[in-house]
Amino acid sequence: MHGVHRLGQQPLARRAVLAGAAGLLAASQAGAGAGAEAWPQQPVRLVVPFAPGGTTDLVARLVAQGLQDRLGQPLIVENKPGAGATVGSAAVAAALPDGYTLVMSNIASHAISPHLYRNVRYDPVSDFTHIALITTNPSVMVANPQFAARSVADYVAMARANPGKLDFATSGAGSSNHLLGVRLAMTAGIEINHIPYRGAGPAMTDVIAGVVPVMFDSLPSASAHIRAGSVRALGVSGAERSPAFPAVPTFREQGFDIVSLSWFGLSGPRGVAPAIAQRLNAEVRAVLARGDVKARFDEFGGTPGAMDAAEFTAFVEAEYKVWGPVVAASGASVG
Questions:
Q1: pLDDT tens for each residue of 135-168
Q2: Which domain holds residue 294?
Q3: Which residues are CB-contacts of 29 (< 8 A; sequence separation ≥ 6)?
Q4: Domain CATH code at residue 88
């Protein structure tokens, strides 16, 4: 039968072409492996999708210093804020996946804002290589010390007795703490009014002054005010009590099945070499194990991460799915 060749009986020219192609593939794979082993050979850029001075920036600079020491190359922190952390994240999603451009991924950029903003230019899961979870910290519900509620359960009971008459403050519409308030209302079946502020500072000032009775805030942001007694902590949103405030019960302990954690991780563009991602994951874990780093996290109620890259990817995907219905229920939307 003309034109048909059995396996192992290809014409000599065709066998030569196939052998050449196989050689090129092996060479390219070997080159990729060597590149991964040699990485990094130049400074690494870490994009923080928020302005300087916030919790994300603080965590990024703390970890960047440790990574720089271990990698032997500068880690340059670049603040690129805007549109709920989506501007900086989109820039990283579009970067070359060579391990030299990373982003401090977080609950806003990868779980909330993709539902909140209409024109986000990335998929929070598939357009990134999610490398390592760095830290999580719960939110806390705080009240003016003169407010009658002594717990989240007290506040819910008051809201049920006075539907639509109780207010809560947050750092802004669409923030994770606004959506935590929405989740409490959904879970408890109550109607409460959101009072958005331009930042946590002004909101806390008004809670301390008694203008608004309660506030949902990140634990790092509120911790100094709790310790000073200027506000009372009603409950934390972690799965367990915070070691920084062991006397404050969780939402779950008070009958409301809500766990809400702000989180910060290290991610790169889709397609970062597995060897580089694994190296970074190991180096992040080593930095988080340092006594000085752990002590710093303890100060603001953060818990160091302990996930491999696959676990962190699954975590990001789960967070994205959790917050979609909450954003929809909140009615918040940004064009």
A1: 998 999 999 999 999 999 999 999 999 999 999 9
A2: 42-137+261-330
A3: none
A4: 3.40.190.150
> Does an H or E element contain 220, and which?
helix 219-228
Q: Which residues pair with 79 in a beta bridge?
A: 48
Helices and strands (H, E) in the chain, number of each type: 12, 10
- CA atoms within 13 Å, Cβ hemisphere of 152: 27
221-244: burial string, b at 16+ Cβ within 10 Å, e else: bbbebbeeebbbbbbbbbeebbeb
Nearest 10 degrees: CA dihedral of 316, 274, 78, 121? -50
Angle at 300 between CA 299 and CA 301, to 5 degrees: 100
285 within some domain: yes
Structural domain count, the chain: 2
Residue 21 domain flag: no
- In a shared domain, residues 48 and 111: yes
pLDDT digits (tens, 9 = 90+) for 174-203: 788 888 999 999 999 999 999 988 778 889
